[in-house]
Amino acid sequence: MKNLRAKLFFVASISIWMVFVTACTDYEPPHQYVSDGVRAYFDYQIGSYWVMKDSATGVLDSFYVNNYYDDNQSSSEIINMTVVTASNVSIGMDVRFTGVSLHFTNSTVTVGVGYDIAINFPFWFGVHNPDKGQYEMLFYPKKIISGIVRDSVYVACCNSSNPYNMYNDTVYFNRMNGLLRLKFNNSVYKQDWVIQRQNINR
After folding, report:
1. What's the CA gap between 186 and 182, in Å, rounded?
2. What DSSP string describes 133-197?
3. pLDDT of 122 strictly over 50
4. Average pLDDT estimate for 78-102
């Protein structure tokens, strides 16, 4: 009987010890890389550019990537990009494994637009964040942009009627051409940039 108790005590002690050992082990979450699907649409490296025309004024401008940083050392990979133009339009992009956020700023004004368009991947359709404005994603198998039929076009719309931060902006993009149209109607811009030609480095 004493032998059985000693054996049970030994087994229980080992079991409790194993629980403490495994509980104290550092847990390292899985690394979240930017998915190939997100990269296919939004990985624009330095040397990428889009020549666009403002349909309101007829002005041509070149949107180009002047900053690209891929942080793949942290637990969640993030690619940061800045797309700028000669007229000081600046679009910041944060690309993550779930999608991309686009931030709109203007280096010539002190008041910016305090929002971004978040595009989830796989592309999620519908409206969300109704308290902060509406965001909607649309899809067109074919859409005519600047007189050319473009295939598989996604359209991200973001708008708000908040009197302190009104905006109604739309971004058109697809896999082959990247950015196709940037329609701004906010406190900083009243522009409608439409693609003429592009060169994308991935």
Report:
1. 12
2. BEEEEEEEEEEEETTEEEEEEEEEEEEE--TTS-EEEEEEEETTTEEEEEEEEBSS-EEEEEEEE
3. yes
4. 79
